[in-house]
Predict the structure of Baseplate J/gp47 family protein.
Amino acid sequence: MTKLPEPNFIERDPDVITKEWIAAYEEKSGKVLQPAQIERLMVDVGAYRETVLRMKIQETAKQNLLSYAPLDILEHIGEPLGVSKLLANCSVTVLKFSVDEPLDFDFKIEAGCEVETKDGLFIFQTTETVTLKAGEISVSAAAICETPGSASNNYTLGSINNLITPLSYISTVENTTITSGGADDEKADSLRERIRQAPEKFSNAGSRGAYRYHALSAHQSVIDVAITSPSAGVVNVYLLTKDGIPSDEILKTVQNYLSDDKTRPLTDYVQVFASEKVEFSIKANILLYMDADSQSVIKTIDSKMKEYKVSLSEKLGKNVIKTQIISMLNSIYGVFKVELKMPEDIDIKEQQWADLVNYDITIGGYADE
């Protein structure tokens, strides 16, 4: 989308406003207002207050536009298009309940059984009733965090192990999958992009834009989507999330969302996949100016590399360009020359994203200008 210039709803130049006040005073009084007159102070105060008010009017007017609206206003802009803010989701996992010795009877574990993380921050609750069969020593049940948000993601295996609900015979409980799927309330930039894509959803022909809109709306962890059609009637949807590769839970959520009859054209066969990560490394030798501070340069390099890694991980199909890396390093204050040894240009396909896994940038010496 073309970046439009900022709209100018109202005059805000203090000099122009002050001149208007002076002209109005002179017209009403019939006198020429001199800079040293006491009335000029009152005119300046009035012009200043009007300037501040006009600035507030400008900002308020801008908030009615999609590109400038804050989150609360975006919700109102999206409402006529049927777009609402995605609320926080709870993370999920699988809990395994075990006994020391096999029982000689079936033992039922009701849905709603609570188990706490070992750090005491979150409680997970089973979402299904399961039965430990006679002669078996364990049974597994799906569970969901009672607190929505992303903070409960990425609990490693065995980290949810404090049984809160009293259960006879059960000796241990632990999660057998890493917790995933939790997400915070949708942020403004994400909602803004979905509102911008919203007109596509009214298509009933299964357009690329429509599938993209619906995939972004299925889960707030999804930040980019690639749509391909390898053959007639087949639609492949590739997801990129805030954490990179989406979890199985997110893939399932988006698959179900896109498979709904109200979303998917009858003749389309939709498949949802994780986007493909393409790993690469940067290796370079740099020369510094004689007066350059090497420690400052190294610190800036680390910052630039982190920013570059993040920028690549936020967009599918973003190519790795050798000249861009050289330009980025050359822009660092104190760097005289960059010799990039790797990588060469990397063509990233539309369903892929580039992941900078390592960088080795050596200061090879100093050079006169």
Summary: The mean pLDDT is 92.
